Amino acid sequence: MRLSTFSDYSLRVLMYLGARPDRLATIAEIAAGHGISESHLMKVVHQLGRSGFIETVRGKGGGMRLALAAQDIVLGDVIRHTESDFTLVDCRSGDAPCRIRGACSLSGILDEAVKALFLVLDGYTLADLLANPQGLVPAMRVEQPLVRM
């Protein structure tokens, strides 16, 4: 199983905001810091706002911040809001159902594994990811001019 880029970016945004709770951050700032697309990040921020994890402030000097305390943002909840499908195998693929479905226990085992994953994720909050807040705010890459001698 692999989390989507959308979930990865969502967690990066939340960690960035959690590492700097005393100020508003912008999409451009976070995108530049992580070297990711602003347009993709806009979709991520929109979804995080709709899910109640962040709030935005419009106008000059606006930006975004966490809508909840870091200890109240459960990682399992974030992933549930950012991923759309947790089915690891589809025993009913299209019009042709799996021919061994009645005898196979793979689907049930994988469903149990997904439940175990969320049991672990539900035991952690954003606050657990903020042990080293300074390290979570990537330095902006500034290209140095070439010096000719």
TrEMBL record:
What is the originating organism of this protein? Dechloromonas hankyongensis
Q: What is this protein called?
A: Rrf2 family transcriptional regulator
Keywords from UniProt, A to Z, are: DNA-binding
Q: What SUPFAM superfamilies would the database entry show?
A: Winged helix' DNA-binding domain
| Pfam families (alphabetical) | Rrf2
Q: Which domain of life is it from?
A: Bacteria
